[in-house]
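Table 4 source record.
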Amino acid sequence: MHTYRQGLSLAFRISRYLVSPVLLSWALVAAADYGYDPDADPAVTYQAALQQSAREEKLVLLVFGSEWCPDCRSLNKKLGQAPLAATVEDSFVVAHVDVGNWDKNMAFTEQFGEPVAQGIPSIAIVAPNGSVLYVSEAGEFASARSAELSALDGWFKDMLKQIGVQ
């Protein structure tokens, strides 16, 4: 015969196995918010980001990259982690442009200069009116895997100050 306490213990052990997969799936869905859709039209994505940034009084953060790229995936993951996540959420509408192996969406990408010439991921920061405020053209983010979150957050905060936002 089981006691009440044994029943609770069993219930907690069972719930741990049921709840953990649910929480994991929620985390994966949240992490999937930052990714490269190979079928997305970057012009449509960009226009939607500009409209949203105007409504929310934020800047557009265009992230150029591809899912095959470990540094691109790393930057996307870091964009969703504290303290960088708060900086990004407060200041930017994020839009991704899939460049494949430098063989996709290059005409779109080139309207921002040469953001991917020195490696991916790369970024552009754009005002809601479409004015390009910054483009990384020197491969600044191409080693995102080794970048510390605090250093990335500091970089974005400094850039926001330089362009007169904070």
